[in-house]
TrEMBL record:
Pfam families membership: Amidohydro_1 (PF01979)
Protein name according to UniProt: D-hydantoinase
Post-translational note: Carbamylation allows a single lysine to coordinate two divalent metal cations.
Gene: hydA
UniProt keyword Zinc present: no
Family in the record: Belongs to the metallo-dependent hydrolases superfamily. Hydantoinase/dihydropyrimidinase family.
Cofactor(s) essential for the protein: Zn(2+)
Superkingdom, natural source: Bacteria
Positions bearing N6-carboxylysine: K154
Described function: Catalyzes the stereospecific hydrolysis of the cyclic amide bond of D-hydantoin derivatives.
Biological source species: Ralstonia chuxiongensis
Keywords attached to this entry: Hydrolase, Metal-binding, Phosphoprotein
Cross-referenced InterPro entries: Amidohydro-rel, Hydantoinase/dihydroPyrase, Metal-dep_hydrolase_composite, Metal_Hydrolase, Metallo-dep_Hydrolases_sf
Molecular function via GO: hydrolase activity, acting on carbon-nitrogen (but not peptide) bonds, in cyclic amides; metal ion binding
Protein's UniProt keywords contain Transcription regulation: no
């Protein structure tokens, strides 16, 4: 084996979740081999003067090529989705292998591997979605899959084709407890939503902005509290995903103050979008469909509460919840080729490439520290989802997943410049400070000076997950 370094990144200003130091980074066989000064010449050299060297991002919640009900299709598969991730500084993604009601979880995992193989450019793990916790799933499939490296799974308290009853939630949480796995919870009250939706639709209030009125904060607050109660009863940690604002935050903070292990995630849409992006009062146009996601974006006061909770340690992870539906597409937001009543619009917004720059702008504006940025976007998701220390840090032995950031570069986000396959971004026109200019995955330079270098589809590796580390 050659002892020559494959790559040396010189004069790196390294920032991890806990430390900041200047050094050269020596890479061999895809891993960080040495951190030090005056390293010998490598086969490839890179000068990082003036740039920050951060661990590649880990996006712990995104949807890529997820099988959809008839007529709907996600615009991004594993190739375009991971290409966009890499161009936004994210080197690891964790999308969802989703069980269908009446279907097998193992079969969903096998199908999802087929979708990823030969396509992914970034490394990837899988979460599971448990939609039908039959006795066989609870007793056999789930424990076996956990042992094989699928140690986190999402459950839904809403959506007819996915939601679990309270009793089923308790059963799934119990399996997580017995097998040391982590349950991610989509917390919204299904009956309240369907009751409100029927009323709104009955009154003819069907344009996109009514999506927000059908899922008010109270609906999320109640389900968040109920999920916390289930976790307390079963005595198991949970992670509440895509928290939208202060009412759910209050529940989570309350649980955390009582010593319960309630973890939480938020996403860019709750920092940058509001209900008005789905349509102003009196606006019955359809453009607002672009920002329809669940829970829905709220208002500036809630945005401020989410920023404060990020800085204050309420959240463990900041994910994209990238849900890539085209706008002008009969398989996307204009389902069947036409404007839909709000309750038929595919839910979710794209954001896998813009996740990190949008949060980094908060660092530039003094809203959170660089260490918090790394912790929320790379270190904690790597730990929670069993990928640390291979991912989530810059340390000897870790994969050489490194993003070099220009902290001063100002960029106006435009969909034309993004690398996903979606025909819009909800963040069009927003100007951010700080941009990931070079990106390495296992030592391979995939983005140079902001330019994607067309690495081979399929270079991304599947990452079986270890046990969750909660701190
Ligand atoms: O609206 C959203 N968030 N769609 C994606 C699926 C989910 O619930 O995360
Ligand atoms: Zn969800
Ligand atoms: Zn999601």
């Amino acid at each position: 084996m050659s002892t020559e370094l494959d790559l040396v990144i010189r004069n790196a200003d390294v920032v991890t979740a806990s430390d900041r130091f200047s050094c050269d980074i020596g890479v061999r066989d895809g891993r960080i081999a040495v951190l030090g000064h005056g390293l010998p010449r490598g086969a490839r050299e890179m000068d990082a003067s003036g740039l920050l060297a951060l661990p590649g991002g880990v996006d712990g919640h995104c949807h890529l090529d997820q099988p959809m009900p008839d007529g709907m299709r996600m615009a991004d598969d594993f190739f375009t989705g991971t290409r966009a991730a890499i161009c936004g500084g994210t080197t690891t993604v964790i999308p969802f292998a989703a069980q269908e009601k009446g279907g097998s979880l193992k079969a969903a995992v096998a199908d999802y591997h087929r979708r990823a193989e030969g396509r992914a450019v970034a490394d990837y793990g899988f979460h599971l979605i448990v939609a039908d916790p039959t006795p066989d799933v609870l007793k056999h499939e789930l424990p076996e899959l956990i042992r094989q490296g699928y140690t986190s799974f999402k459950v839904y308290m809403t959506y007819d084709d996915l939601k679990l009853s309270d009793r089923e939630m308790l059963d799934v949480l119990d399996v997580a407890k017995q097998n040391n796995a982590l349950v991610m919870v989509h917390a919204e009250n299904a009956d309240c939503i369907s009751w409100l939706t029927e009323k709104l639709v009955g009154e003819g209030r069907i344009s996109p902005r009514f999506h927000g009125l059908s899922r008010p904060a109270a609906v999320e607050r109640e389900a968040t509290h109920r999920a916390i109660t289930f976790a307390e009863l079963v005595d198991v940690p949970i992670l509440i995903v895509h928290v939208s604002g202060k009412e759910a935050i209050e529940q989570i903070r309350w649980a955390q103050s009582r010593g319960l292990q309630i973890l939480a995630e938020t996403c860019p849409q709750y920092l940058y979008l509001t209900a008005e992006d789905m349509g102003l009062q009196g606006d019955d146009g359809y453009e607002g469909a672009k920002c329809v996601c669940s829970p829905p974006p709220r208002d500036p006061e809630n945005q401020a509460a989410v920023w404060r909770a990020l800085a204050g340690g309420v959240f463990s992870v900041f994910s994209s919840d990238h849900a890539p539906f085209n706008y002008d597409d009969p398989e996307g937001k204009k389902l069947g080729g036409q404007a839909q009543p709000f309750d038929h619009i595919p839910n979710g917004v794209p954001g896998i490439e813009t996740r990190l720059p949008l949060l980094f702008d908060g660092v530039a504006r003094g809203k959170l520290s660089l260490h918090q940025f790394v912790e929320l976007t790379s270190y904690r998701p790597a730990r929670l989802y069993g990928l640390y220390p291979r991912k989530g840090t810059i340390a000897v032995g870790a994969d050489a997943d490194i993003t070099l950031w220009d902290p001063e570069r100002r960029v106006r986000i435009t969909n034309d410049a993004l690398h996903h396959a979606v025909d819009y971004t909800p963040y069009e026109g927003i100007e951010v400070t700080g941009w990931p200019v070079h990106c390495f995955s296992r030592g391979e330079m995939l983005v140079e000076n902001g330019k994607y270098r067309e690495p081979a589809p399929g270079r991304g590796q599947f990452l079986p997950a270890g046990a969750p580390s909660l701190v």
